Structures are given as C-alpha cells and as structure tokens.
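Annual report, structural modelling task.

Input specification for the magnesium ion complex:
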Amino acid sequence: MAKYITRPNGTEDVTPKTIHKWKTVETIVREAAEKFGFSEIRVPTFETTELFQRSVGETTDVVQKEMYSVTAKETVFTLRPEGTAGTIRAMLQNGMLAEALPQKVFYILSCFRHERPQAGRLREFHQFGVEMAGSASPYADAEVILLGKTVLDTAGLKNIVLHLNSIGCPTCRAKYTQALKEYFAAYTDKLCETCMSRLDRNPMRILDCKSPICGEIAKDAPLILDYLCEDCQAHFAKLQEILTGMGVEYTIDPHIVRGLDYYTKTVFEFISTDIGAQGTVCAGGRYDGLIEQLGGQKVPALGFGLGLERLILTMENQGCEFMDPNHCNVYLAPMDDAARPVAMQLAAKLREAGIRAEFDLADRTFKSQMKYADKLGTDYLIVLGSNELEQKQAQLKNMKTGEQRPIRLDEHFLEDYTELSLNDMFGDGSSLL
Ligand code: ATP
Ligand code: MG
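The model returned the following structure:
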C-alpha cells in the first residue's frame, strides 16, 4: 500500500473531535465583536506582496523572514501573514472610509508565517482581529482593549495581564530613534546580523528581536516613554485614566514595541502567565499613519489580533469550558428492511423540528447498531421492528438512564417526542410552569 501523505510542518487538522473547541471560540469572539458594534469583513487569503512590504514594514521579522510568497504569471503574491493590511486595503478599495466614521470591522482568518513550529506557534494559524478606523480618541483605544478583555473573560481565562505602552508618533520617535542608534552603536560587535542591518534603518526593531543576546543588550536601552511628545503623553495619560475608571487592570510595560512597523501611540498585549514563551494571546495598538501609507487620507486607526490557537491552548491548560460536542439526539434502529423507510421518514420529521436524528445506514445487526448509537453519544434510541410497525408504537429509550416510555409512530410522533423529552429533562412538566 502507498504511504499516505502527511500535512506540512506547522499546520494542523481540526477533526470532528476538536471542532467544538473552535466553534466555542468563534462564537465567543463573534458575539463579543457584534455587541461592541463591529461588523464582519472577509478579505482574500493572498494579496500582492507590495501591500505587506508597505504596511507591515521592510525591517520586520514578518517581512524579512516569515512571508510565504509565490510568483504567479509574473506578479508576486504573499499569503497574508496578518489581517490588518488586507482589511485596510479593502476599506480603501470599497470606499468604506468615505462613509460614516468610525468604521468598525472584525474578522476570523488564517495567517501564514514561516516560523519554527512549536506549541502555540504555527505556520498556518488563525486570528480573530478587529480594526477601527476614524477615531483618534483615547476612548477608542479603551474600547478596543475592552473588547479584547471581554473575549478573554468570556472564554474564562485567568492569569492574564494587560501590558500597555505608548510608542509615540513620528515626531517623538525621531529623537528616540537617534537615542537608540547612539545606545546600540556601542554593541555593534554583539548584535545579531539582522539587528545590525536594523541599526541604521529602524533601530526600534532591535527591541523586538527574539535573540537572547540582543534581548539582553536591549534591556538597558533608552525607553520611548521618556521621549513622548506632549500630545502623545496626554493621549496615553487619558487612556490610563479611562481604563482605571472602567476597572481594567494593566501594567505599563515600556519594553513592548510590537512586531509590525505600523504602530503609533498605544500598543498593548494580553499575556498569559502560564503558556511560557508563546504567552501573548492578543496584541494590538494604534496605527495612525497606516491608512495614509497605503494611499488613503490621513485617518487614525487601531485594532488587535488575537491568536485563536493560543486562546484554545490557554483555555485547555486552564480547564475552561467549551460548548458540548455535536451529538445525536435520536437514533432510529430499524430491525429489518421493512422498517428502514419508516426510520428515514421519522428522522426527517424530527429534523424538521430541529432535532438531530440519525438512523442505520450500514445494514447493521441490532447489536452493532446499539454500539454505534452509543458512540454517537445518542440521547434517545427508538427500536423499529415488525411489532412496532404493526402496533404503530415503539419505546423511546433514554440512553443515559435506560428508562423507556411508549411513543406513538403515527401523526402524534413529534408531539409525543417533544413531550416525553421535555418531561425527561424537566420532570413531568410541573417545573416548566
Ligand atoms: P510573537 O511575538 O508571539 O511572535 P507577534 O508579535 O508576531 O507574536 P502579532 O503579529 O501581533 O504576533 O499577531 C497577533 C497574535 O497572533 C499574537 O499575539 C498571537 O496570539 C498570534 N500569533 C502570531 N504568530 C503566531 C503563530 N506563528 N502561531 C500562532 N499564533 C500566532
Ligand atoms: Mg512573531
């Protein structure tokens, strides 16, 4: 036999055994986003490479090392490494920024980055992301942070710390960049090769380098917070005041600069203290220059990306609850060929009423039908033999308790089923009133 082909490194399959975990987080993020007034947007899986070069930034790890690019018919495309660039492109291309502002959108999408795969770090991963365009107010920053927190709280996560920083605007950054250049110039023999190339073009990127040596050097580097202009200082102070007023706890972390170039002012990360190196579950901030950089007007904007694999991983580690896996409500077990069409008709009736019903599709013996029904986690079983068909009555068996009640197989079937199953769940109707 030929050997089957395995999936590429750093990708994952979601099988029927784990799909309920994805449905859980997708439901949580959708409901939270919609409550905050964000609408869903869907953008292409690939874009022209230039889009990411212009937005994410030429000196970032993502653009320098992690992009999956293909040349097709002489155009270079890249599988999206993140969702912001494509979303802003779509907002521009669809004239959304000419409509009432702020525009508030969210997405659930796959991202592709060529990284070293490990727990919580994949080459294809999924993000829930939000983008708000058209508000410079610190209330917008607080609102976006609150949405991220709502998702993590609804998922039931504990031990999550909100790290907050401001990385200023181009005005404050010019002075800061100069200070960084002077600081790092003393370490040119120790910095990694990538950081050496960043020293001239974008020294702030060195602060985000994952190499332990660069990290050690960066520890004593000048802090952006000491270089903020008046406007950025005031914005940051107001944001903190709003968060404190809303009872949101945070810690100021002058070391977060975020991995992508387009950020200005606020940056934040929700970090789990228990998934180690891949602890950042949600990360985002403000990017007031991005829309202009992509050819639009100067429209302030902000957002975040939340890694769904990391969210699920943290939920698993913390024993958080997921919705129940989809299971069969009623399994109809025909004993012979004459009962099979009846089983199919009854299943159709149940489904019309919104009940998940299945019946034997494999000509199984009674015993193996029982085993199969059990594996489906069936709530109720109805056995259909010649006796049952003749008397137009069968037994509805509760698979958990073994209890049986008679159910009519005529036009009263659905009525009986509803009453019997409700009685079963709530007692004999009395507690329903
Ligand atoms: P990290 O510092 O962990 O590499 P990042 O700064 O590259 O993260 P962002 O670009 O901000 O991450 O992406 C937002 C979120 O997407 C991250 O906080 C994380 O939850 C998730 N994420 C990023 N890269 C991966 C990956 N390779 N696999 C799984 N999730 C990821
Ligand atoms: Mg990264």
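Residues 82, 113, 115, 120-122, 125, 127, 259-260, 278, 280-283, 305, 307, 309-310 surround adenosine-5'-triphosphate (ligand 1) (CB under 6 Å).
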